[in-house]
Specification:
Helix content: 40-55%
CATH topology of the largest domain: L-2-Hydroxyisocaproate Dehydrogenase, Chain A, domain 2
Number of domains: 2
Structural class: alpha/beta
CATH superfamily of the largest domain: Lactate dehydrogenase/glycoside hydrolase, family 4, C-terminal
Largest sheet: 6 strands, parallel
CATH class of the largest domain: Alpha Beta
Radius of gyration: 19 Å
Shape: globular
Number of helices: 9
Number of strands: 14
Order of helices and strands: EHEHEEHEHEHEEEEEHHHEEEH
CATH architecture of the largest domain: Alpha-Beta Complex
């Protein structure tokens, strides 16, 4: 174990992920890569120049030469075009599919045994693109979306109920997008189901806001979120590097689980040193399962649009 992590994409998310990796001391070396000449080098230098003030070891380097990334244990793909106001995740399909293929194809040559965390949107489809491009087993690629969606839901619940965010747990499954499937029955405050703590009308309102979470950020600041996505990535990295065996809502490739085959769908996953170590199948109501199947169907439709077979 050499403690090396490579981050593809030196934009807002990639920069935030790199910074948080160093702050949390989750690796011995971070390699930041970007297709724009000088961008990764500039972000890396900015982070390095803060190290004497922050009293953090300067472990970030630019991956202008991909040799620096060789034998990375984890590769995080944040590269891609960003959503603009009025743009759906579907609009990003073809553009980002090409970018993710390029990144993973390059990364796989230098780090054939790495675990891949995909952040690029539309996330579920990009996980599939990454798996195919790198010829990866399903245990070595996942997407961070469910953690981000659940975190947003947790925050909205805590604010509405005036309780600490530490007391709130939330479960969100399915697609990272408008067809995500928040599961209130598995969302709790200090172990109490939220369905017992607020009206159905208020809960539906918070679920709608969760589904609209990314678009709301874009409307406010005219660019995609990056602090919360970076925090979600860090939680996943910690689970793998520290072998936590932590159950987290992540995009995983299903081969029959939940009656779904051939798509990356957000489900509870056990993450540890071996990557996706187990997919947890929880009991769903008929309505919840129907919503999950609908979400998976949309993902498969998107795959067909870019010529990726299931």
């Amino acid at each position: 174990m050499n403690g090396k992590i490579t981050v593809f994409g030196a934009g807002n998310v990639g920069g935030a992920v790199t910074r948080r990796l160093i702050e949390r001391k989750l690796c011995k070396k971070v390699v930041l890569v970007d297709r724009t000449p000088g961008k990764a080098e500039g972000i890396a230098l900015d982070i390095l120049e803060a190290s004497p003030v922050d009293l953090l070891e300067p472990v970030c380097v630019s991956g202008e030469d991909l040799e620096e990334s060789r034998n990375s244990e984890i590769v995080v793909i944040t590269a891609g075009a960003t959503r603009k106001e009025g743009m759906t995740r579907d609009d990003l399909l073809r553009i980002n599919a090409d970018i993710v293929r390029e990144c993973v194809s390059k990364a796989a040559k230098f780090s054939p045994y790495a675990f891949y965390i995909i952040v690029s949107n539309p996330l579920n489809v990009m996980c599939h693109v990454a798996m195919r491009a790198g010829q990866l087993p399903r245990t070595r690629v996942t997407g961070m979306a469910g953690i981000l969606d659940a975190s947003r839901f947790q925050y909205f619940l805590s604010k509405e109920l005036c309780v600490s965010v530490e007391n709130v747990q939330a479960m969100v499954m399915g697609e990272h997008g408008e067809d995500m499937v928040p599961i209130p029955r598995y969302s709790t405050v200090a172990g109490i189901p939220v369905t017992e703590l607020m009206s159905r009308e208020k809960l539906d309102e918070l679920i709608a806001r969760t589904r609209d979470g990314g678009a709301e950020i874009i409307r406010l600041m005219h660019t995609s979120a990056f602090y919360a996505p970076a925090s979600a990535v860090i939680q996943m990295v910690a689970a793998v590097t520290m072998d936590k065996k932590k159950i987290l809502p992540c995009a995983a490739y299903l081969t029959g689980e939940y009656g779904i085959d051939g798509a990356f769908v957000g489900v509870p996953v056990k993450l540890g040193a071996n990557g996706v170590e187990e997919i947890k199948e929880i009991e769903l109501t008929g309505e919840e399962h129907e919503a999950l199947l609908k979400s998976a169907g949309k993902i498969k439709t998107q795959l067909a649009l870019i010529g990726e077979s299931c």
